[in-house]
Amino acid sequence: MKSYCKTVFKLFFVGLLTMVMSNTTLADYPDRAITLLTAFGPGGGSDVSHRIVEKYAKNFMTQPLAIIYKPGAGGEFGWTELANAKPDGYFIGGIDLPHIALQPIVRKKGQPGYQTEDLIPVAGLVIDPGMVMVHKDSQFKTLDDLIRQAKKNPGTVTAATSGKFTGDHLFLMDFEAKTGAKFAQVPYSGGGKSIAALMGKQVDCYFGSANSFLRMESGRSLGVSTEGRYELTPDIKTLKEQGVNVVFMKRRGIAAPKGIPAEKIKYLQDIFAKMAQLKEYQNAKRKVGLSPDFMTSAQFADYIKNEQDRAAKMLKSLGFSK
Amino acid sequence: MKTKTADKYLSVFVALGCYFLIGQLEGVPVEGRIFPSAVLWLIIIACGVLFAQSLLKKVKKDSHFELWENGSFPIWLVIVVIFVSFVVGIFYIGFFTCAFLSSLLVPTILSKKDWRASLRINFLFASGLVIVFYLFFVVLMKVRFPEALLI
Amino acid sequence: MGFDPGFVFSQLINPMTLLLMSFGAIFGIIMGAIPGLTGTLGIALLLPFTFGLDPTSGLLMLGAVYCGSEYGGSIPAILINTPGTNAALCTTFDGHPMAKKGMAQEALNTALIVSIVGGFFGMITLVFLSVPLAKISMKFGAPEEFWLAIFALTIISGLSSGNVIKGVISGFFGLILGCVGMDPVTGVPRFTFGTLQLMGGVNIIPTLIGLFAIPQALILLCGKGQSSVAQFNPKKGVFIGTVIQILKRWKVLIQSCVVGLIVGIMPGAGGNIATFIAYSEAKRFSKKPEEYGTGIYEGVIAPEACNNSVVGGSQIPLLTLGIPGSPPAAVLLGALMVHGLQPGFKLFSQNGNIVFTYMIGLFVANLLILLYGSVLVRMFVRVLQVPRKFIIAAIICLAIAGSYAIRTAPIDVFNMMVFGIVGYFLIKFGFGVAPMALGLILGKMTEEGFKLSLLIGQAKGGVVAYFFSRPASIVLICLTVASLIYSFYQEHRKGKKTNEN
Description:
Order of helices and strands of chain C: HHHHHHHHHHEEHHHHHHHHHHHHH
Oligomer: heterotrimer
Strand content of chain C: under 5%
Radius of gyration of chain C: 22 Å
Number of strands of chain C: 2
C-alpha cells in the first residue's frame, strides 16, 4: 500500500510540475500555432488586412498564424469571444477602433458582452481616416456645396453610413455638430453595401473611410478627416483646410484577452514591430487602401483610452447617453 | 386526434405566441417595429383563416394525426433524446466520445430484435465513422472542437 | 481591353495550373457536399495557400472551388434530402424524390451536367456582357431589394405541398426569425431576450441544417432498420441517357440559366433566392405543374443550372465594380485585394491578361468538374445502399459537426438542434420546412430593403413615390402582381378539376 501511495504521489507531483512549467516558461512560447481571430466574415476589410499580416509576420514567427472567423453583430460576437478566451498567448484577435470603444458604451444595460478593458492592446497597425464622398457625377462639387444644401433643406440630403452607432455614424455626428448641417442618415449593413449604394446613386453622399473611397470606381471625395494631408490621397483637401474642424480616424490593431502575461505581449509586439518595418508589408497595406502606422502596446492603450473618452463625451453631448 | 382538431389547437397556440412576440417589441423605435409587427399580425390573421378552414372544410376521409402509434414507445422520441444528449454531451465528454456512443446506440436500437447479432457490425460502423470524422474535421479542416470539461 | 491570347493559352495548358484547378474543383465539391461547410468557407480556407502562387493560378484555384461547391451542394440534397449549400435547397424538392424512385444516378448526373451548362452560360456572359450588365446591376437599390424579396415570397404558396395557409404561416414565421438580433438600421436588438448569442440573429446555415437534416433522419425511422434509403440498381449508360433527357427539356434549362444570371448580377441577392425563383418559374410555365415535387428531371435542372449560372453572374459586378454579387464572390474580392489587384474597369486595362485568363480558365474548371464529378457520382450513389440505421446515425453526427465547423460557436450547434426538433414538428403538423427556410433567407433582405427605402423616401419627400416610381421596381411589382394573380388562377383551376372528378 505504501509503495502504491508513493507512486501516486510521484505521478501527481510530476503532473503538477509539468502544468506549472508549461504555463510559465517563455522559452518555449510559442510551441504551436497562434490563432488570430477576425470578428468579421471572410473577404471583408478585416480579413484582407489580417491576410497581409499573416503573410509578412511569417518571416519573424516560429509558429504559423491561424486565422479564424467569428462574425456576428458587427464584430461584437467575435470580440466577446476574444475577451473570454484563455489569456495564454495563443489566442489573439484583430480589433477596430472606434468600434471596440463604442460598442460597450452603446450596449443596452443588462446585455452581456465584452468591455473595452477586457481587450489588451498588443500593437496598433494601420489607420483609415474618414472621408466625405459623393458620386463623380454628383451636383456637389465641393464640400461647401454639400453643407449649404444640407443646411438649407435639413433632412433631405441622404448620407450613407456603415451601420448605426458605429465609427461612420460618429464621424457623421461630429460633422453635423461642427457645421450645423442636418443629413438624413441611411445606415447600410457594411461598407460594401454603402459603396454599392453610392455608386448606384441611391444616396447623395457617403460618410465613410478612405479605404472605401479607394475601392470605388466613380467616386469623388470632398474632404478627408486628417490633421494634414493624407498620404494615400495627397490631392484631397482635409476637412480642416475647408473650415470644418473634424478629425476622425479608424484604427486597426491586434489585441489579446485580459490576463495575458506581460512577456507574451512584448514578444508579440516585437514581432509585429519588425513586420511593420518591412517595406513590402507597408506597400501591401497601402495597396489595399490602408496606411501603416505602427503603435506599441502602451501607445495603443493610451489611444484606446482617448477614444473611449471622446466617444462617451460625443454621445452624451448628442443625447445618446445610457 | 383528427387533423382538424389539431389544426384548431395549433392556430390558437401560434396566434397567442405571436401576440407575445409583439409584446417583445416594446422599446424598439418605430422603424424597427413596423416590419415585424406587420408580419406578426399577418400570421395572426392567417391563424384565423386556418381556424376557420378547420371548422368549415368538409373532407370525406379525414386524416388521422398521430404523434406515435398506440402502444409502442415512440422511437422518434428516443432518437431525439439521444440527439439532445449528444449535443449537450459534447461540452462535457467531448465530441468524439459522444459521436462514438451515439453512432453505436442508434443502430443498435434500430436493429430491434436482432441487436445482439448486429452488435459487431454496429461497433465497426461507429469506429469507422469516428475515424473518418476525425481525419476530415480535425486533421484536414483543423476545426478545434470544444474542450471536454469532465475528461 | 488588352490581353494576349498567347499568354492566356499558355497559362491554361500549364500542368501546374491544371493541377491546382483540379484540386480546387474537388475541394469545392467536397465543401459543397458537406452540410455546414460552404464554398465561401472553402475559398477562405485556401486563400493563404495562394500567397505563394502567382495571382492567375491562385485565382483560378479559388474560382474552381466556387464552381465545384455549387455542384457539390446537390449531392446530399439528392441523397439524404439535406442541402449541402444554401443554393441546393430547391434541389431537395425533386432530387430526393427521384432518388427514392430509384433514379438517384439520373438525378446526380442531371445535377452535374446541368451545373456545367449553367457554369458555361454564366462564364460566356461574364466574358462578353460584363460591361453592359454591370451598368444594370447598379440600378438595383433598396426598393428593388424589397420588391424582389416580396416577389420571392409569393412563391411560398407554390412551395407548400398541401395546405397553403400553413405554408404561409411557416414562411412568415421565417421572416420573423430573420428579424432576430441586432438591427443594423436602428442599432437596437430585437427578440434577443437579453442574450448575447441571439444578437447575431438566427444564423441561416445551422438553421437550414437543422430544418432539413434532422427531420429527414427522424422520417427515415419509419422504415425498417436494415433497409436502405432507396432502391438502387447500378445501371449502364445512365450518363448518355441523362443527357438525352436533359436535351428534351432544353427550355427549362435555358430559362433557369437566365434567371441565375439576372439574380446573380444583383448585389445582395445570391444563389438561394435565384434557385427559388428558377424553380417556381419552371413550375409555373410547365404544362404539368403538379408533377413538380414528385421527382422529375425539371425539378433538378432548374435549381442546379441556376446556381451555377449565378457563379458567373455574381462575378460581373465583382470584377467590373468591386461589388460582390454573392458571399463567395465577397471572399474572391478579398483574394483579389490581397494579391494587389484592384477590381474595377482598371482591372481590365491594367491586368487584362490575368482577368481574361481567369474568366476563360473557369470554363476549363467546369470541364474538370464534369470529369471528376462523373467519377464521384458513381461513388456517392452507393450511399443509398447503406442500411437506414447507419444513415440516421451518420446524419446526426454530420449535422452536429457541420454546424459547429462554421465558426466553432456552440450557439450554432444549439441553433441547429432547436430547429431540428422544430422542423420535425413542422413536417408532422403539415407546415413544411421549405417555406420557413425561404422566409428566413428573405427576412433580412425584405426588411432591410423596406427600412432603407423608408429612410431615403422620407428624405426625398415622398415615401410612397419612392417605393413605386423607380423603373426597376415597377418591373418587379408587375411580376409580383402577375405571380399572385396567376397562383389564384391556378388554385381556382385546381378546385374546378377536383370538382369535376
